Amino acid sequence: MFKVLVSDPISDMGIQQLHDAPDITVDKKTGLTEDELVAIIGDYDALLVRSQTKVTERIMQAGSKLKVVGRAGVGVDNIDLEAATKRGIVVINAPDGNTIATCELTFAMMMAIARQIPQAYKKTVGGEWDRKTFVGVELRNKTLGVVGMGRIGSEVAKRAKAFGMNVIGYDPFLSEERAEKMGVKLGSVNDIAAQADFITVHTPLTNETRGIIGKDQFAIMKKGVRIINCARGGIVDEKALIDAIDSGIVAGAAFDVFVEEPPAPDHPFLNNPKIIVTPHLGASTVEAQENVAIDVSEEVLHILRDEPFKNAVNMPPVPASVLNILQPYFNLGEKLGRIAGQMADGAVKEIHVSYSGELMDVDVSPLTRYIVKGVLTNHLAGEVNIVNAMHLAKNRDVNVVIQKSAAAQTFKNLVTVTLKTKNGDRTLSGTLLSGYGERIVQIDQYPVDISPEGTLLLVSHNDKPGIIGRVGTLLGNNDVNIASMQVGRKVVGGSAIMLLTIDKQASDEVLAELTKLPEIMNVKELAL
Ligand SMILES: NC(=O)c1ccc[n+]([C@@H]2O[C@H](COP(=O)([O-])OP(=O)(O)OC[C@H]3O[C@@H](n4cnc5c(N)ncnc54)[C@H](O)[C@@H]3O)[C@@H](O)[C@H]2O)c1
Ligand SMILES: O=C(O)CC[C@@H](O)C(=O)O
């Protein structure tokens, strides 16, 4: 049974599938302090948050069973990603569910500052009938500058076109073709600053985007420009904005987000008649909250149940087309890694993975993670998983080298794992055979054909008559049944290997007796 803690207000309807799951129990405890969370998190396998809970390193350290932190929303700036990755905790978000809600708030803000609706409302309910002060501007024929043309920025641009606006977009990942398709002109941040009547930002807050709209940009803006920030506090420099309002450059601004949330009561935005504010409401629609909770719950279920998932923030995304090709190999890859890890003699310096056949044409890095996980699993204390495998390898100076070699001749696909230690290399190749499933087809230089299942016994010996019989007899006498056996040799009478699948583990004594048999050099039991 898995335990999930929901520590922020997340839509009950959205997390219904967690309540319904027979293997999950859900506790909802909102408004906890860091200390209170630290005290209870050790009981939980998953933590679900919005933006209020700060998921710190201390919390993750106390979360000894924690496998996943789910963020019902886009931004993960409230989660210590590095700490999560180090511990192999998967961080997932729900990037799509609140796009439209935030886009629509952005538009509402733009129209509200164009027509000063909040200011007019305030006066009107205060008993004044002021029709002179509130003369607004139209959106039609105005230029909207969009900094950050991802999910939300693109939706904003689309709606702006419907309002008859000209749109200039800036995004390092926006291609000319895509921009053209959307009817958006590409420009730099300074082009936007110089030409736009309205500027809206839709980037994450990073070192590059902090203050991307700052003093230098306000200095070149048209008089009467209006600014909107429904992304993250700090993307528009707050102090520079106040200065630009005071100097008459900016006619109005709308902010949903602040550098510090909630802003202090004396924050200059809170009593400036040209600035309207909302308390981080971008994602606050019934639909968005349901969407993000559904998405994040689905992913949490996948992760807890060890099923493939797609929205991990601390792992590179895998497109569905690539996942479809790679997924059947994940199990095989991990097994090859596990077996190779047990075969290696001494500290592994390099994990060399070679892919051929149909694996040549796809990004194989997700599969490499499974292999590296397999190699490290029997060697490291603590959780090793596909999130922290590469990080753990790097931290231990284990080089991971990926090679793609020309299309496999014999097999439609082939994965070869070589582990390099100071005592030499050990190599293992595996494939997926249609109708037969996973097969190990080579160990070191020896061709074999065996299914990687149960317990394997790898015996290195000299190819002399009677050896196979002696090994079989010794195992049989000790009640160890052999399910399958393969012998690999390069030349008659030379060195050889025997690979056996046995129905139960052989005891240390049996392994020691096997090692003592004549012509046997080495015996290794390999657990999968
Ligand atoms: N107010 C809210 O409640 C609310 C709700 C949802 C999202 N958000 C925030 O809105 C922002 C955008 O969300 P999204 O879902 O569109 O994200 P997204 O990842 O789809 O888009 C972000 C875009 O910013 C671009 N970008 C990154 N660095 C840039 C730079 N230096 N200059 C220009 N562009 C840059 C990226 O290429 C990307 O296209 C995020 O900060 C998110 O946290 C706020
Ligand atoms: O949870 C929220 O309401 C905020 C969501 C928003 O900031 C996000 O980044 O998804």
UniProtKB/TrEMBL annotation:
PANTHER family: D-ISOMER SPECIFIC 2-HYDROXYACID DEHYDROGENASE FAMILY PROTEIN (AFU_ORTHOLOGUE AFUA_6G10090). It comes from the Bacteria. Pathway: Amino-acid biosynthesis; L-serine biosynthesis; L-serine from 3-phospho-D-glycerate: step 1/3. The keyword NAD applies. InterPro entries: ACT-like_dom_sf (IPR045865), ACT_dom (IPR002912), ASB_dom_sf (IPR029009), D-2-hydroxyacid_DH (IPR050857), D-isomer_2_OHA_DH_cat_dom (IPR006139), D-isomer_DH_CS (IPR029753), D-isomer_DH_CS1 (IPR029752), D-isomer_DH_NAD-bd (IPR006140). GO terms for molecular function: NAD binding; phosphoglycerate dehydrogenase activity. Belongs to the D-isomer specific 2-hydroxyacid dehydrogenase family. Catalyzes the reversible oxidation of 3-phospho-D-glycerate to 3-phosphonooxypyruvate, the first step of the phosphorylated L-serine biosynthesis pathway. Also catalyzes the reversible oxidation of 2-hydroxyglutarate to 2-oxoglutarate. Pfam families: 2-Hacid_dh, 2-Hacid_dh_C, ACT, PGDH_inter. NCBIfam families: PGDH (TIGR01327). Keywords: Amino-acid biosynthesis, NAD, Oxidoreductase, Serine biosynthesis. PROSITE patterns: ACT, D_2_HYDROXYACID_DH_1, D_2_HYDROXYACID_DH_3. Gene3D superfamilies: 3.30.70.260, D-3-phosphoglycerate dehydrogenase, domain 3, NAD(P)-binding Rossmann-like Domain. Residues 456-528 form the ACT domain. GO terms for biological process: L-serine biosynthetic process. It catalyses: (R)-2-hydroxyglutarate + NAD(+) = 2-oxoglutarate + NADH + H(+); (2R)-3-phosphoglycerate + NAD(+) = 3-phosphooxypyruvate + NADH + H(+). This is D-3-phosphoglycerate dehydrogenase. It is an enzyme of class 1 (oxidoreductase). Its EC number is 1.1.1.95. The lineage of its organism: Bacteria, Bacillati, Bacillota, Bacilli, Bacillales.
